[in-house]
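queue> pop job 88
queue> type: inverse folding (structure -> sequence)
queue> payload:
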């Protein structure tokens, strides 16, 4: 059931056809980028003298915020959020995350997911089924920005 929802999500978000072999790449992407965002959040919290990571500590850009809003609209139909709660496991960090931030991690992951799906079309506007090189380019792009 989860595979079908992810396939539908990528179709709705960017007109892409993904399959279950792409889901491992997707999970790897989610874990890596969520970790990156949270590490910066910890650094920002420490720099501001806090002992708990707050929402304002996370480096959420205008573009990512727009993707979070797009995810919310898509999620009303697809209902991915329960699945993303399981995927959005946070790594061990130097500081705890505030409860309200923890509860927002699935939407943050959803926004990253929309951004990832749309990045494939920026990399190759004609792509329908992303290949390994598309995934590698998307990962490299996000590594530059997050």
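queue> result:
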């Amino acid at each position: 059931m989860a595979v079908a929802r992810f396939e539908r999500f990528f179709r709705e978000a960017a007109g892409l056809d993904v399959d279950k072999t792409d889901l491992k790449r997707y999970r790897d992407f989610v874990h890596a980028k969520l970790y990156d965002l949270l590490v910066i959040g910890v650094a920002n919290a420490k720099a501001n003298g806090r002992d708990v990571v707050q929402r304002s500590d996370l480096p959420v850009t205008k573009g990512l915020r727009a993707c979070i809003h797009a995810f919310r609209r898509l999620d009303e139909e697809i209902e991915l959020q329960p699945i993303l709660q399981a995927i959005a496991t946070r790594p061990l960090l130097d500081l705890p995350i505030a409860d309200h931030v923890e509860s927002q991690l699935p939407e943050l992951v959803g926004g990253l997911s929309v951004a990832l799906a749309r990045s494939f079309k920026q990399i190759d506007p004609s792509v329908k089924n992303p290949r390994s090189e598309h995934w590698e380019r998307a990962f490299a792009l996000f590594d530059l920005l997050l």
